[in-house]
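Here is a tokenized protein:
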Amino acid sequence: MRLNYAALAPEATKALGGVNAALLRSGLDKRLIDLLFLRVSQINGCSYCIDLHARDLRRAGEPNERLDGLAGWRESPYFTEPEKAALEWAEALTHVAATHAPDASYEPLARHYDGGQVANITYAIALMNAWNRVAIGFHRGPEPNPEAGRSA
């Protein structure tokens, strides 16, 4: 890691953590939040966040089929229409320079979620994009997993 950003900028780190805490209190399903976090991290190529959120989802009982199929969620039978709408919005916002958050990505989201949920989903996507940029910028990699590499 290039530097210990959490120790060097504790107030900013705590502020991002505060957004995460607010999202957890928002009433959104934590699994949906973590699915969004994982998909955004996959798009951005943040190995630390991919590892972290995949582990969180596994601990929460998320089936491997859904984790394995997340990168191809559009063709996957494992995701609900509301989840697909949220994932579409996550991709549109993560690629916002190219997409400009089109109505075609927003409208399905607004059909499945109320205004507060849409706002919190949007904050979740923005938060993960921020965390990805911090982790990637400072070359933070996955934490060692003592179970990794073991055969069953």
Notes: The chain has a mean pLDDT of 95.
